[in-house]
Amino acid sequence: xxxxxxxxxxxxxxxxxxxxxxxxxxxxxxxxxxxxxxxxxxxxxxxxxxxxxxxxxxxxxxxxxxxxxxxxxxxxxxxxxxxxxxxxxxxxxxxx
Length: 96
Description:
Strand order of the largest sheet: 1-2-3-4-5-6
Strand content: 35-45%
Radius of gyration: 14 Å
Largest sheet: 6 strands, antiparallel
Mean pLDDT: 81
Helix content: under 10%
Number of helices: 1
Shape: globular
Distance between the termini: 31 Å
Low-confidence stretches: 1-20
Order of helices and strands: HEEEEEE
């Protein structure tokens, strides 16, 4: 695999203006969703196959944690990067 291809992994390719972006994840195109906290900083990020329903168990979700406006750490829903979560339920998962 060339460095050019590797550099494109997780790079946003198209922003649709609806909070959904097309992202290259590994070898497939994925939909990306973001929510923002009161300071307008990313709070949750979800990635799933393009066209996935937000209520389907096909999302990998991470939560961004801050001290003030400084990002301190990123945690995965249920402690894994597996594509087995529902975007609609993102706030109910434990983040490890």
